[in-house]
Amino acid sequence: MSWLYHVLACGLVVSVGAKPVVLVYEMSAAYLSDLANSAASAKVEFRACETHCAISTDRKDVIAAVGMPRNFTSLYDLPNLKLIQSTTYMYPRLSSVPARPIVAKYDAPWRIYGVEPIAEFVVAAAFQWTYKLAEVSSRFRACAFGSGAPGGCAPDSALTAHPTLMSKTMGILGYGTIGEAVGRRAFALGMRVLATRRHGPFSSWLIDDNDKLLAESDFVAVTVPGSVFHVINRTALALMKPGAVLIPISSNPVDFDALYQALLTRRIGAVLDVWPQGCWHYPDSFCGPPYGPEAQPYLQPRLAELDNVLVLPGLAMRDSRFWSNSAVWVSDNLVALMDGMPLKGVVRNASVDLEQTEMQFV
């Protein structure tokens, strides 16, 4: 009886005797399990969806959509949708979803997921670029585990030769909290560190000369705030050391068109975990019905084919703990929705006050 009272208090439209339905889009089995074991499971029924959700029940029972449906237009078919809940710090472009529901995101703790994990990712990217373990393993498997091995293998001096990070320079463009975390790790590995920021005090490796950093660094970690636009432009890319690798942690500071042209020349490389548009754009993402060009993270089809760029889906801030904590956050918001309490991480409030919504029964 208590859950029905909360439904009535919120003015939700559901079938009598049934739990309200929450559609969960494109989440892993582990995430769905976390939701099923959460406090919200006593108040709502979760339905797992792929890119499109076939709703066998009355669409009026659906009160929330969780995750990222690739086709946002499907949300317009849900007349009593009250909440569109993102499971990450990104959320759907507001102009692409119905105006009436609340839109909320998961406000992940910045210190936990925005500093140390990103710094670890930058170092992991540098290691991957330098050692190329998967590629070396593939060559070794092909020559050393076949018939007539090791006759098909290159000499050990060729097969095992590689540089080390100890011989490299890590450049950190924008020495803030994340930049400092990158610097600590790089220095501990024996790398030479160059970092820039606007204001001193400066030291032997903390300078105010971006040109020097670009010219001398083997890896350039771009850790300036996301509010800074195109600090990495055609001029900056031309200043980079041949063979250097760009590792940005936000898309806005990078002129992607200029970067694409620089990558085509094979003069530099890049590890790209952030994107300027599409379903992977921060903070508002848009897949476009039905998955048109705007669904792509960058509208240059040859980018992913280049062997001097490593393309990634935004994993720097999203480890297993991120997702388990996200499920708790989403559950809390669903409980708050049912109980008529304020929600967390609200990006846009509902256009109509939920408490004033006309109640109907079917």
UniProtKB/TrEMBL annotation:
Keyword list, A-Z: Oxidoreductase, Signal
Record-linked SUPFAM superfamilies: NAD(P)-binding Rossmann-fold domains (SSF51735)
Pfam families named among the record's database cross-references: 2-Hacid_dh_C (PF02826)
Gene3D superfamilies per UniProt: NAD(P)-binding Rossmann-like Domain
GO molecular function: glyoxylate reductase (NADPH) activity; hydroxypyruvate reductase [NAD(P)H] activity; NAD binding
Source species, domain of life: Eukaryota
D-isomer specific 2-hydroxyacid dehydrogenase NAD-binding domain span: 162-313
Keyword Signal: yes
Signal peptide coordinates: 1-18
Gene Ontology, cellular component aspect: cytosol
Keyword Metal-binding carried by entry: no
PANTHER family in UniProt: 2-HYDROXYACID DEHYDROGENASE-RELATED, GLYOXYLATE_HYDROXYPYRUVATE REDUCTASE B
Protein name per its UniProtKB record: GhrB protein
Species for this entry: Symbiodinium pilosum
Encoding gene (name): ghrB
